[in-house]
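Re: How this chain folds, sequence and tokenised backbone to follow
Notation: Tokens come from a learned vocabulary of local backbone shapes, not from coordinates.
Start of record: The labelled sequence and token lines come straight after this line.
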Amino acid sequence: MLISRAIHIENENVNLDKVAPETALTRSACVRASLHVSTNFMKTQEHLDNYSSTLTKILNQEVELGNEIVETSKGWPAEKTIIIFLKKPFMAKYTYENVEYRNVDDPHYWKAEYVDHSTKHVLACRF
């Protein structure tokens, strides 16, 4: 699963800091993981493992298009809600049953989101 491999890369001896010079090893690690996960925010493997299967489809497509997971969160606005934040605005539009797109467009929160009404999970993108 694509998002599971993202966390694995953090455990490798690979410097993915954006200011560090790119090497063949870092390029190879990013390709193997198919995803660069920033280390500035909290990301929890449990959140990824228990995430909505429908939103995971959107997440995987966004990652394939070049977007990145920057943070995961659980417990707000409902106790069982899991939110995954993407670094960039959504790169495509998606339509799935029980999933609603919302243009939040509030700098205090985020740009937009997809909400899976069956799980109350959210996939949000930053500006």
